[in-house]
Amino acid sequence: MSNSKIIIQNGIIVTLNSNMEIIENGTIVIEGNKIIAVGTNDCLGEQFDKSDYKVIDAKGHIVMPGLVDLHFHSAIGRGYGDNLPLYEYLMQLWYPMIRALTPEDAYWAALCSYSEAIRSGTTCVNDMWRQMESCGQAAIDIGMRAVLSNDVAIPEERLDTLEDNLLLYNNMHGKAEGRIEVYIGIEWLPLASKDLLKEVSKMANELKTGIHIHLNESLSEVEICKEKFGRRPTELAYDCGILGKNTVAAHCVWLSDKEIALMAATGTSISHNPSSNAKLGNGIARVPEMLAKNINVGFGHDAAECNNSRDMFEVIKWASLIHKANRVDVSLMPAEDVLRMATQNSAKALKHNTGSIEVGKLADIILIDTKNEHYVPLVLGEDTNIYAHLVYSSCGADVVTSIINGEVVMENRILTKIDQYQVMEKANTAFNRILSKIR
């Protein structure tokens, strides 16, 4: 267990607790990987011998829970093959690239992916890709909290198998003081069979772990499933035992009323990925209807190939604005709700004790520098505009310090456990090596 002892003092603590409490001139005390005290400087200032702690002065900084990226693909081909529809992109570029992926390529690509995520405020990723043991090692090395799953498909697709995912579970689940977890992944239903889906459900139940799956991302996926299985994607997933409280369903853009009801009835969590869905021309998910049915909805960036950014603050802004514009209703997706979705809801989907700053929670915390124009004017108190600033004005580059599991993994914009410049160089080399194989 981490033996770190940290005091964060003088900050503006955006707790995102049940009362949405904001503490001015606040102090957070961390021991090991847990928050043990939260309050004002006056209340906590003399209770702890600071000589025993690493002291972080957060004056002029917002201190808040780290963001949870609920649908994440480590990736390496950003900006390559833009402007292709989803199906064509997958067949022409994505699948050829990930079939060519070596363990070394995956390690550097994942390190680069996690580096960008941490540097923009993400403290946990729900990552589905290939060569996942390499991704797990990257997460261990950089300090990321990661839930890993394989790109499982039927054998003729030459992606991952259930046996690959079981091996990953046996080798990686619970590593790094529990920071690393393993779910069972399903690439998407056009590359699955009913038997495979039933086997995934059985394995997840036997291992008492979760499932990560793409569902109803595009209209073409819906039509392929209707033709292949005679069912819409989420209907088929329900028939095969895939939906449930331990399942994260990504995208869910084209859910029917019946499918929304199935999600609600089974307690399935949904990852809303608005900027990826927009860039790929897949549409806008019916999030207001999902929330009306009390479905737990969090956010993901998807992959740098279909988003070109891993900045979750950008995703948060999209998630608020796109529904206001689409429904011509400014009341939808208010800033406070959107922040909770990016933290509490996404953490709840993964059964993590994170997502708010409270005693007993895991110490996944970020510090945001307000000493720039993004935060002028900064109003605290009853009429605070701090939530609006965080959703509509912030960007990942405003994050200066990140703590994951009680460990400082970025300080003053510098990653503490890896050489980020070496990682970028190695990731570039890996991409060119992959590209030479698929041309």
Automatic annotation (TrEMBL):
<dbReference type="Pfam" id="PF01979">
    <property type="entry name" value="Amidohydro_1"/>
</dbReference>
<feature type="domain" description="Amidohydrolase-related">
    <location>
        <begin position="62"/>
        <end position="409"/>
    </location>
</feature>
<dbReference type="GO" id="GO:0016810">
    <property type="term" value="F:hydrolase activity, acting on carbon-nitrogen (but not peptide) bonds"/>
</dbReference>
<dbReference type="InterPro" id="IPR006680">
    <property type="entry name" value="Amidohydro-rel"/>
</dbReference>
<dbReference type="InterPro" id="IPR050287">
    <property type="entry name" value="MTA/SAH_deaminase"/>
</dbReference>
<dbReference type="InterPro" id="IPR011059">
    <property type="entry name" value="Metal-dep_hydrolase_composite"/>
</dbReference>
<keyword id="KW-0378">Hydrolase</keyword>
<dbReference type="InterPro" id="IPR032466">
    <property type="entry name" value="Metal_Hydrolase"/>
</dbReference>
<protein>
    <submittedName>
        <fullName>N-ethylammeline chlorohydrolase</fullName>
    </submittedName>
</protein>
